[in-house]
Amino acid sequence: MRRRPHRRKKDRDDQATQNGQGEFDLDQALEMLRGGDINRAIGKCQDRLMMAPDDYAAMSLLGSVYFEARELDQSEKAFSRCASLEPKNSDAWINLGLVLCHQGKTGRGIQALKKAIMLSGANQLAYSNLGKAYLDLKDGLEAEKYFKKALEIGGDDPGIEAQLGRALVFQGKPKEGIKHYEQALRLRSDDDELRVWLAEVQRALGLREQALTHLRHAVAVNPKNVDAWYILSMMQRGSELTKHVVPLERILDDPETNGDSQIIAGFALSQVLHEVGDLESAFARLSRANELKRDQVNWDLRQSKAFVEKICTTYSPKYLMEMEGGEATNASPIFIFGLPRSGTTLVEQIVASHSKVTGLGEYAGLPIEVAKFSASDRVTPYILKKIGRSYIKKIRKKNPDTMIITDKGLENYLYAGLIHLALPNAKLINCTRNAMDNCFSCYQQLFQEGQYFTYNLSELGQYYQQYRDILNYWESVLPGKIFHVSYEELVSSQEQVTREILDYCGLDFEPSCLTFWETKRIISTASADQVRQPLYKTSLSKWKLYKKNLGELVNSLGQYADNRDQ
């Protein structure tokens, strides 16, 4: 977890003099913040800034208060002002970098953190948060470098050791990563959060019992550790979840439980209640948790729709024809995409069980390349060539012995036209699922990041239509380019569909692709547990258990909900 913005001791010393003059009681404002009285703390800081607009201490505290209140735009403004007031103050740049990273403005956040290092030199906090920023970009190699530097500067730190472990896991070195998690636990054995982090890696590796042991230890040490309860609710089934109901209800009924914890515990309890058969209570908890989460995020369906429309306009038949046939790499990566919970992890696990294929999971390589320019704007042949080669170069650097890779970046369906031009030999697989099942499964899931359209049933249905619109467009301008895999057909005719997938990818059939659950690889998605077992049909038509609650979703799906009674 990224650290909160902090303040220098010097600010306290300076402020003590101001307190003596009766101008600004910093300690009182801090007590308001610690006591959860956010509005009074903001007012206290603003009162001071009305009298002294250049008071760094008041401005810095205001930024911290806004940060705690999750008003990140206001927090960014306050910390930007701090950096203007004291441009040589490394703490100001660290705090600005932190809030930028929390907003998803990772590039600018990295610049601010590097500025802090330039000013202060050996700054462990700046280095460690740079590492976290690169982890946000899924760049484990750069993250590893900065975490190691942070440890060199400040010595053993369990939090940084754990983050270094995470960076190594991102690079496909899970065994090395686990060693650093274990070192972190040796330094702080009673840290329940570290145990959750280690359990997440073990779960991704399929080490189920080891993960469960650490999670149970975590909730024993700290019964309010909602992250541990949430993962337990995802990993366990049936009657073994019954004993989770009371502790989760206690967390949710506790007035001191903060907003984030209310959300996580709400999703966890909903899953538990579903498993024990109390569907009415399960949906009530689920609906409330989604409502709280949606209130937190800043996402606009209209902007998303406008972006999709612009991509379709940009990648017109004429433009695609003009750009085809240019000099490009002959590499043939396999892109597997679709909406969350549509079967993408399953399809990747099947393909990655082939001896010639390495699965990269939700690799961020293409979004990183696309972020260098406007994804919806036309680009020159030179840029297309550069995108393709840079993408392949990074993959080969990370996986030098790999023949073929799969990239399961879910939103790569937006870039099908770009992929077609920059990587003309690439294979594109779109995973589909019954619209109601797909959308309701999304609604049941609390995602680690992004996927903000899933927290409101009306927006979810409209986003699904948007997704189908752009897939229909690609089919019209690039007929036959994208291979569509139906989850329902895969479950009912596993071998036939598996052979069709492999044939499309230009791969010979291998029996290991049918026993995909035996393949050892790291899987970091919500489906990590499901794909480590043979195919099952219990997820089909699951939405019908909650049919009476899903009228809003049915209406927003329009024509795509017409098969809801099949």
Overview of this structure, please?
The chain is mostly helical and 566 residues long. It has three domains: 9-217, Alpha Horseshoe (Serine Threonine Protein Phosphatase 5, Tetratricopeptide repeat), CATH 1.25.40; 223-296, no CATH class; 316-561, P-loop containing nucleotide triphosphate hydrolases (Rossmann fold). 60% of the residues lie in helices and 4% in strands. The protein has 28 helices and five strands. It has a five-stranded parallel beta sheet with strand order 2-3-1-4-5. It is globular, with a radius of gyration of 25 Å. The two termini are 44 Å apart. Residues 7-23 have low confidence and may be disordered.
Distance between the termini: 44 Å
Low-confidence stretches at least 5 residues in length (pLDDT < 50)? 7-23
Structural class: mainly alpha
Q: Order of strands across the biggest sheet?
A: 2-3-1-4-5
- Helix tally equals 28
Give the CATH architecture of the largest domain. Answer: 3-Layer(aba) Sandwich
> How many distinct folded domains?
3
